[in-house]
């Protein structure tokens, strides 16, 4: 007789997922409590809420969820097991965050980011800048399959260029993220683009082709809006960039060889090198190029007047690990500053606390109960699409993770789509249009925390300008309401 497979301890909480005793109102109690506490906290602390108080509020939200769980006979051990699994699932993202901080440090002192800003100021003018940000980031994101990598490389440089041109950082960040998430959705190299059809029971390239029906109109509208904004904004313009060009030229050895490093990183990711490995190589190459092209900067960071092995080692490691601020006029100081790995710890703290809340909500069965209630409301085809969108949005807010926003609704809704005679591409497209792209609009979501930390722009500042991200769910609902290109299941012909 075959021995029954034993479930790993950290998955014990799966027994709670189907908790019949949890009512919809019990499931929503932690959500209402969290939203109310976060709203008041942001009202009191403003933008600084992200520096620590929001993290504690997420833990309090988890405590409220735990009380609901205890009431429904869910053990502390089971809830903690689900929290541990949630935190474990973010290990890769947390390591990538640390490496992005390290990469930003060596790319600053090597002159790579200053070179991007320097040449970008010659090419981009305020009128076309925002639309160009969308196009550039879309191309890079399609090539790499990663909105995270796009934001951490060209995104940082574009933020610097926009700042010099006198364009709102929120506008620039919104344009960067609109392009980055367009590429992230449409690239076959993207993990979410691969995950969505798997959860829906579809096929990758069929999913991409079908997703283009809503994605192309959305990015077109986004570009048109940014073009209109470009003609209407009042900025300092390229004529005022002469001072920053002079400052960069005086402090750095700017040349085309510096672009070898970002090209290598992009090439590695196109070749499906794990992002963590590609970013580590980019960090190390940035350090080598800093020693070659910017020896005086490296030696000063190492506390010496001349470059030696010790001062070079110390200077590069300082840039990698701690905050680096190079000498510059105050109004341009942000362009010559990097956070290093230490600067990413606040974002990591936020993600871990969000995973605690999401883990407990998952462990007590609240996330699944909310999703099922949304499914029960779907009486029509449009209602089914709307319920999927609502479920994805709710999970991005409560579970704080875009992958859960794809996986949980994908599991819950796949049979419903099939029973209605709808092809799996309908579900996979809706998952991406509402789960993948809206994650960056939630400050405590892993994506929102990551991008606001990397770009240095709070979510509340770029929210309205991340046009592609918030417009995508409306576009997929519009197509569903008007019955545009709703693909039906093909029934095999009888022999």
From TrEMBL:
Thylakoid as UniProt keyword: no
Subcellular location, principal: membrane
Molecular function as annotated in GO: antiporter activity
Bilayer disposition of the protein: Multi-pass membrane protein
Sorted UniProt keywords: Antiport, Cell membrane, Membrane, Transmembrane, Transmembrane helix, Transport
Source organism superkingdom: Bacteria
Cellular compartment(s): Cell membrane
One cellular-component annotation, GO: plasma membrane
Transmembrane segments: 21-43, 55-72, 93-117, 123-144, 208-231, 252-270, 276-293, 341-361, 462-482
Residues annotated as domain Na+/H+ antiporter NhaC-like C-terminal: 179-481
Keyword Metal-binding listed: no
Homology family: Belongs to the NhaC Na(+)/H(+) (TC 2.A.35) antiporter family.
Protein name per Swiss-Prot or TrEMBL: Transporter, NhaC family
């Amino acid at each position: 007789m075959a021995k029954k497979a034993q479930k790993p301890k950290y998955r014990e909480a799966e027994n709670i997922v189907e908790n019949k005793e949890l009512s919809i109102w019990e499931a929503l109690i932690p959500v209402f409590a969290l939203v109310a506490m976060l709203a008041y906290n942001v009202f009191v602390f403003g933008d600084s809420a992200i520096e620590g108080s929001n993290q504690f509020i997420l833990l309090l939200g988890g405590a409220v969820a735990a009380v609901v769980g205890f009431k429904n006979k869910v053990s502390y051990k089971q809830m903690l097991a689900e929290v541990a699994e949630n935190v474990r699932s973010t290990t890769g993202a947390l390591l990538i965050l640390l490496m992005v901080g390290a990469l930003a440090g060596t790319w600053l002192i090597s002159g790579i980011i200053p070179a991007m800003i320097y040449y970008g100021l010659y090419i981009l003018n305020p009128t076309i800048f925002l639309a160009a940000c969308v196009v550039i980031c879309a191309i890079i994101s399609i090539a790499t399959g990663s909105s995270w990598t796009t934001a951490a490389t060209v995104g940082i440089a574009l933020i610097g260029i926009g700042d010099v041109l006198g364009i709102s950082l929120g506008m620039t960040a919104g344009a960067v993220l609109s392009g980055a998430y367009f590429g992230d959705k449409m690239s076959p190299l993207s993990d979410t683009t691969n995950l969505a059809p798997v959860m829906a029971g579809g096929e990758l390239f069929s999913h991409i082709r079908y997703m283009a029906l809503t994605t192309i109109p959305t990015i077109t509208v986004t570009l048109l809006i940014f073009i209109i904004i470009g003609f209407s904004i009042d900025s300092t313009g390229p004529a005022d960039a002469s001072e920053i060009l002079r400052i960069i030229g005086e402090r750095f050895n700017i040349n085309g060889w510096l672009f070898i490093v970002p090209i290598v990183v992009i090439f590695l990711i196109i070749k499906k090198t794990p992002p963590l490995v590609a970013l580590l190589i980019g960090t190390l190459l940035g350090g080598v190029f800093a020693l070659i092209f910017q020896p005086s900067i490296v030696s000063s960071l190492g506390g010496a007047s001349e470059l030696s092995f010790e001062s070079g080692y110390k200077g590069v490691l300082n840039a990698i690990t701690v905050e680096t601020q190079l000498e510059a006029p105050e109004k341009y100081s942000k362009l010559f500053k990097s956070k290093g790995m230490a600067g990413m710890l606040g974002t990591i703290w936020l993600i871990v606390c969000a995973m605690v809340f999401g883990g407990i909500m998952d462990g007590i069965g609240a996330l699944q109960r909310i999703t099922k209630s949304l499914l029960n409301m779907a009486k029509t085809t449009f209602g089914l699409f709307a319920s999927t969108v609502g479920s994805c949005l709710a999970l991005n807010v409560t579970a704080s993770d875009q992958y859960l926003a794809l996986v949980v609704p994908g599991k819950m809704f796949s049979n419903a789509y099939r029973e209605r005679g709808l092809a799996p591409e309908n579900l996979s497209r809706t998952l991406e249009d509402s789960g993948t792209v809206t994650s960056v609009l939630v400050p405590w979501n892993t994506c929102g925390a990551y991008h606001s930390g990397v770009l240095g722009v709070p979510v509340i500042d770029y929210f309205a300008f991340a046009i592609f991200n918030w417009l995508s769910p409306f576009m997929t609902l519009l197509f569903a309401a008007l019955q545009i290109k709703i693909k039906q299941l093909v029934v095999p012909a009888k022999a």
